[in-house]
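Tutorial handout. Part one gives the primary structure; part two gives the three-dimensional structure as tokens.
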Amino acid sequence: MSQIRELKEFIDQGELLPHESWQVRQVKSDECLSYVAWNVETREVVVIDPKREDLRAYLQIAESLRGYSWIAVIDTHTHADHITCAPELAQKLGAPLVMHKNSPTQRAHFKVQSDALLNSKAGSIKIFQTPGHTPDSITVLWGPYIFGGDTLLYGDVGRDDLPGGNATDHFESLEKLKSAIKSEQIMLPGHDHKGGRASTWKKQLQINVSLTQSREDFVREAEAFDAPAPALLKASLRENFK
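Part two.
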């Protein structure tokens, strides 16, 4: 069942909220986390990683944002654990679907070739090419927010043992992000089995061991990871590859 939450409901206690002109809603469904973020002053909105089962929740949020400009629907990678509704949602909202060039889908309207910027009156949407979890993984920065997808999780990172995963690439992606992200920005992960938490990047640098490991330790632990494949692996890839 979809749960819509405001940032103050899931950010770590003691962390400061961004300026009130920046708003975000988290749509929580099982362990999957997606986001609708907007700027009140410029009336611009982006959607990150929408899940098919949550389509009604996004449309409910959209109804409350009538008159806003929908800049983009962004899938941070080809998901292996759930079916995306990004193509359908993009069509309903009149927004482009943005993904990385290595994404196999033919339904994206715009595929970034490498690191890229999307224009926004509230400030550029920065898209970083961050392979590792998948070859087409990207990380999105807009205003005070970091949308980590499965590249960055709360206190952890996404697994690299699924099709296309590469631990060495993942380490290099994290190193790139560490030089680009500001300490006060808020990291919003794509998954969190402990409830969908968020925190500042400063806190992640303190508690996320993956961000302080050496390349050798990171790659060794990532390659030793052993867990069952997602229950919806085949169905998700079949649909998300279209």
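Part three, for discussion. The first helix runs from residue 7 to 10. The chain has a mean pLDDT of 97.
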